[in-house]
Specification:
The protein is α+β, with helices and mostly antiparallel strands. The protein has five helices and six strands; from the N terminus they run ααββββααββα.
Length: 176
């Protein structure tokens, strides 16, 4: 009886010691504690304010709002886009991506990445209705031949010219 209790105790103790790990993190690591789990980190399926905060820290948009100045500032974009009207309800918004914008592996962010993001946002059957409703006015993205960092957004609808640049700025959320 004593042997079986001792064996059970040793088995339980070895299981507890074997499962516990010490986590060592680099000295420059940043730890953030959230009030609750963000639930989802997909930039096209943001349902909670916590998830939106995490997405804003992880991903860049073309223009970033500045709370201090109360205006938009170029972030992933080199500068503010140029806007050209093509009739009453169509505009061409041209962006240039900063040369410093790179992915985690060092590959530069290109216009083809933006094209992929917009095509993904227009896919039917994906659970991204909110993103489709917010950015449905972006009808097409056209990369500029010979300039991998320059692209044009074909924007439809009755948007005012002054509101197009900030409105198109956030659709590149999936870029880091």
């Amino acid at each position: 009886m004593k042997r079986s209790i001792l064996g059970l105790f040793l088995l339980l103790w070895s299981g507890l010691v074997g499962c516990s790990t010490t986590v060592s993190s680099p000295p420059d690591a940043v730890r953030i504690r959230w009030a609750r789990d963000p639930e989802n980190l997909d930039p096209l399926i943001v349902k909670t304010s916590g998830a939106l905060e995490v997405i804003s820290l992880l991903h860049c948009s073309l223009l970033q709002p500045s709370e201090a100045k109360g205006e938009f500032l170029p972030w992933l974009a080199q500068e503010f886009p140029s806007v050209k009207r093509l009739g009453d309800s169509l505009m061409l918004v041209t962006y240039q991506i900063r040369p410093e914008a790179t992915w985690d592996n060092g590959t530069p962010v290109s216009a083809s990445d933006v094209v992929f993001t917009v095509k993904l946002m227009h896919c039917q059957g994906l659970p991204i209705e909110l993103a489709q409703a917010r950015f449905g006015f972006v009808e097409d993205v056209i990369p500029t031949p010979g300039s991998p960092a320059v692209f044009r957004c074909c924007v439809g609808g009755s948007l005012l010219t002054t509101s197009v640049a900030p409105a198109t700025s956030a659709f590149c959320l999936s870029m880091r």
